Amino acid sequence: MPTNPALLFGEMAGKPPEEAKFFWSGGPVEVAERTWFASQLSGVTAFETDDGVVLVDAGAVMFAPMLAGSIREKTQAPIHTAIFTHGHVDHAYGLSEFLVEGQPTPVVIGHEAMPARFARYEATAAHNRAINARQFGGRTSADTGAEWVSPAIPPNQLYADELVIEVGGVTFELFHARGETDDHTWVYCPDRRVLCPGDLIIWGVPNAGNPQKVQRYPWDWADALRLMAAKEPASMAPGHGGPVVDDPELVHRILVDTADYLDAVVERTLAVLEDGSPPHVDVVHAVELPTPDQPWLQPVYDEGQFIVRNVIRHYGGWFSGRPSELKPAPRPVLAGAVAALAGGALELARVANQHAAAGDLAVACHLADFALEADPADETVQEIVAEIYDQRAEAETSLMAVNLMNSAAAHARAGEPYA
After folding, report:
1. Are 410 and 138 in contact (CB under 8 A)?
2. Which stretches in the chain have pLDDT values below 70?
3. What is the reported pLDDT for 419?
4. Which residues are bridge partners to 53 per DSSP?
5. Does the first or last residue of the chain, that is N or C, have fewer Cβ atoms within 10 Å of its Cβ?
């Protein structure tokens, strides 16, 4: 994640909940009696009980002081129990900031798959720093503020499928659901009719397709959303974006609309796969994506085409379906051959620029990649390629696509193709 909050929040900072989008920040918002929600990048929800606070999620290390300060405007009670909806660094790493001085370590609950996630982070720390730098528009690991280690206060109570706890006379129901992660938990407090879906609701197209991350599960995700709707919550405190307060009809609509969207993407992708199993990129272009107009289903972070690819990955393996890509040539070698056909890397870059000028940015980027990989030291090639990716970034809507294009531009200017 970038260390500059402005890169994350942009114009969404300070927006009221009714204008909530993925990067809404604010709070504390009272979502029910003795229950408050705050968000900086990600959301946290504090349920005050007679025995202390039950905290759902704890934010990222860099934003936890702001989140904790917001919650502490409303309650000074110690943290009795913390529930991590999943093990991402923006949800499970900031707990220490919420503890009052001298209090014992609280009960910390997570799904039983969470320790394996933290072990994977530590085994692939450099990889995660690199891909997250790209995801947020940077070029090197110095462009991300997250450390890929286990949280300072990890879960000390794990569960498998469902768990019901009572703290200070208040009941909390925990349910496991694979979605953005395999260790995801959604939480419902029936006494206060508050739903905490974690990242299963983010005020945008679900993050079920993230191009650089491990497998996501949109089919299970949709099932979980329908189970949430059946609980008939009155308020919702999401993993990202603003809360919905005392509006059960809106909560129900958001949950069901999102489930319908995910089901449609999965069903349409499988239908194309079943029609002769064409190469993966052909499947992507053949799937007719839903085009919802609801504000909670806009491609502000992830997008439908990426979800299609995640469905393909689950059902289709790693082979793209193109015979030449089964055992491909090294990219610099292939790039050199393509550039030679065009009369050299610089001429290929100029052809790419012509396609960009004509509005065909997808083809322009393919050719630009080959030009840069064929001659990464040519400063003119570097700048042409960078400008093409600048244009591509401006044309995209989802933060994933925008930032990966911006990252490509930064790499080009440094003479560093991804290859």
Report:
1. yes
2. 1-20, 139-146, 419
3. 58
4. 48, 79
5. C
Domain 5-259 = CATH 3.40.50.720: no
Q: Alpha carbon of 271 to those of 276, 302, 320: distances in Å? A: 10, 22, 17
Q: Pinpoint the alpha helices (H) of 231-360.
A: 248-274, 280-286, 304-316, 331-342, 345-357
Token pair, residue 332, equals 């610099």
- Report the pLDDT value the prediction gives residue 1, as an integer from 0 to 100: 36
CATH class held by domain 329-413:
mainly alpha
* Backbone torsions φ then ψ of 356, nearest 5 degrees: -65, -45
Is residue 104 within 8 Å of 150, Cβ to Cβ? Answer: no
Query: Per-residue b/e over 349-380, b at no fewer than 16 CB within 10 Å?
Result: bbbbbebbeeeebeebbebbbbbbbbbbebee
**Cα radius of gyration (the chain):** 23
User: E strands along 57-193, which residues?
Assistant: 79-83, 107-111, 157-159, 162-167, 170-176, 185-189
Predicted TM-score (pTM) of the model is 0.93
Reduced to 3 states (helix: H, G, I; strand: E, B; else coil), residue 306 is helix
Long-range pairs of 401-409 with CB within 8 A, sequence gap ≥ 24? 401/303, 402/137, 403/134, 403/135, 403/136, 403/137, 404/134, 404/135, 404/211, 404/212, 406/137, 407/133, 407/134, 407/135, 407/137, 407/138, 407/139, 408/365, 409/385
CA 375 to chain CA mean position, Å: 34
Cβ–Cβ < 8 Å for 381, 372: yes
Tokens of 341: 């056909």
Tokens 């798959």 locate to 113
pLDDT tens by residue, 7-59: 333 344 344 545 667 888 999 999 999 999 999 999 999 999 999 999 999 99
pLDDT at residue 305, rounded to an integer: 97
- Of 175, 183, 118, 182, the closest CA to residue 151 belongs to 118
Q: Please name the residue that has the structure tokens 């193109």.
A: 322
Q: Which residues, other chains included, contact 418 with Cβ-Cβ below 8 Å and sequence gap of 6+?
A: 369, 408, 411
Residue type, 55: L
Tokens of 189: 């407090």
Secondary structure letter of residue 104 according to DSSP: P
Spell out the domain ranges in the chain.
5-259, 329-413
